[in-house]
Amino acid sequence: MSTQRPSVTLVQGDITEQAVDAVVNAANSSLLGGGGVDGAIHRRGGPEILAECRALRASRYGRGLPTGQAVATTAGRLPARWVIHTVGPVFARNEDRSELLASCYRESLRVADELGARTVAFPAISTGIYGWPMDDGARIAVETVRTTDTAVEEVRFVLFDAQAYDAFATRVH
Ligand code: ADP
């Protein structure tokens, strides 16, 4: 595999609408659905994604997907080919969990490489229900993908609102 550093692009919008090889889901360790990005992906992607998640729980991930790891399923009816599920850390003031958040981006790119995906869309992992401050979440996201060797050519951060977009734009430019 020939690796390089991916180019980073930013879009304000909905990750479920992205025509990329793989979209990354900010999942929880149950892999059985939740709110935010997770809810939107299962709603729009249809029941095939959940069926594969259930099969993963019944086999490799009987106790759930650990924080910082990533695993792929079909993308069902989404325009993408695959969904890469990763579990971000819950933000904690009394403990530095940055390495786990960086691991989500690195492991997702590693899974993308295994799949042969060349374009990958990421949400701002952990910055919703899991409470990570957006500016710091953006810093970790951009620094990590920029320093990871991968055959992925484009990493597209899909930011839901203008505040998130601006936080990422500050880090990218
Ligand atoms: P987490 O549990 O990892 O915090 P969330 O899904 O709650 O994950 O939120 C992660 C980020 O994704 C938040 O910034 C949230 O505003 C954003 N978000 C929510 N829905 C979508 C969507 N459909 N597309 C892109 N980003 C989204």
> Strand sequence of the main sheet, in spatial order?
1-6-5-2-4-3
Label the CATH architecture.
Answer: 3-Layer(aba) Sandwich
Structural class: alpha/beta
Q: State the CATH superfamily name.
A: Leucine Aminopeptidase, subunit E, domain 1
**Helical amount:** 25-40%
How many H/I helices?
5
Question: What can you tell me about this protein's structure?
Answer:
A six-stranded mixed sheet has the order 1-6-5-2-4-3, with helices on both faces. Helix content is about 35%, strand content about 20%. The protein has one domain (about 5-170): 3-Layer(aba) Sandwich (Leucine Aminopeptidase, subunit E, domain 1). The model has no long low-confidence stretch (mean pLDDT about 95). α3 (about 100-115) crosses α4 (about 135-145) and α4 crosses α5. The chain has five helices and six strands; from the N terminus they run ββααββαβαβα. With about 170 residues, it is α/β, with parallel strands linked by helices. Bound molecules: adenosine-5'-diphosphate (ADP). Adenosine-5'-diphosphate (ADP) binds near residues 40, 124, 126 and 160.
Features:
173 residues; six-stranded mixed sheet; globular; alpha/beta; binds adenosine-5'-diphosphate; 5 helices
